[in-house]
Amino acid sequence: QVQLVESGGGLVQAGGSLRLSCAASERTFSSSSMVWFRQAPGKEREFVARISWSGGRKDYADSVKGRFTISRDRAKNTMYLQMDSLKPEDTAVYYCNTDPPKIDYWGQGTQVTVSS
Q: 77: alpha, beta or left, given left = phi > 0 and alpha = psi -120 to 50?
């Protein structure tokens, strides 16, 4: 069964940094555009960043533009999200998926908590 496993979350102070990883269990993901989402308590899941299959195109939500950087290593079937200048409002569970997202690919996510 195809799996996407998120990791790298944690507790960090405002202004700090974290690097999230999304590991795919199959090489088929190397030909897919991939997306990071997040869901804060009591809120709907929202788009954070997208990267094309080649890595040549990257899109960001306005709320993270200039602070977060999405990247991927196709040889390792892994996608990353470098998060800098973190704010308390970035606190959420972060998920990765394909673009468009598929129900079967949702994982457990990784918790990011930013303290003020």
A: left
Phi-psi region of 90 (alpha: psi -120 to 50; beta: other; left: phi over 0): alpha
The SS3 of residue 13 is strand
Q: Residue 106: CA atoms inside 13 Å, Cβ hemisphere, count? A: 9
- Tell me the pLDDT tens digit for each residue of 24-73: 987 668 788 999 999 999 999 999 999 999 999 999 999 999 999 999 99
Query: Is the preceding omega at residue 41 within 30 degrees of 0, hence cis?
Result: no
The label of the residue with tokens 């079937």 reads 77
Q: Determine the length of the chain.
A: 116
Rounded CA separation 94/38 (Å)? 4
